[in-house]
Amino acid sequence: MAPVSKLKIAVLVSGGGTNLQSLIDHCRDPNSPVEITLVLCNVPGAFALERAKKADIPTVVVNHKDFDGREPFESAMHAELERSGAELVCLAGFMRLLTDGFVDKWHDRLINIHPSLLPAFRGLHVQQKAINYGARFSGCTVHFVRPAMDDGPIIVQAVVPIYGNDDEGSLAARILAEEHKIYPLAVRLIAEGRCRVVGERVVVENARAPEGALINPSPE
Ligand code: GRF
Fold first, then answer.
1. Which of 12, 52, 64, 66 has its CB 3.0 to 4.6 Å from that of 94, i.e. a possible disulfide?
2. Cβ(115) – ligand 1 distance below 6 Å
3. pLDDT tens for each residue of 97-127
4. Domains located in the chain, CATH noted
């Protein structure tokens, strides 16, 4: 039987790369329809690079500090992404804002993971913002990227409870554990051709959703 071609993805990182690791682990499954062709990092020495090297994945550092402005930096990134043959670009803790021009070039081929239930709590320190607000639930979102920050059609979300004694760290850890499940899931759904952007909503074919409501605090 002819080998089935896999979806080629590039992962953009800036830091520790635990989400990158979840994608690497997913791709190790021979049944995964995804392969990582490049890990691109803007921070020399970031631990994410070690994770990629250990998995024999090509890496490149494109350091924003080496460029005079965002456009030349992004042109260099774009050239590396094209060279890698990436069909989908995954932001995984990539800590630079992208220009509209770059986002438009990768329209519906650029996704991000964010540690809140979008559209609530965009930007940084969103776990603390959810606690400060007294939200009873938070979670994480994988979405297609649009020019506005943390904006775009939602692909997958996971929900976690917020407890009265949570601090930013404990909530971030609870959310991160779910990020590691939903990023590989979202990438797999795209690779299987099951996600269509209709208007500005993602329709997922043959998706199952949990029934019923989550209540926190529970009424006991
Ligand atoms: C994650 O919480 C992700 O949602 C956010 O940045 C963090 C990156 O963590 N965008 P890691 O580098 O993947 O461990």
1. 12
2. yes
3. 999 999 999 999 999 999 999 999 999 999 9
4. 1-106 (3.40.50.170), 112-202 (3.40.50.170)
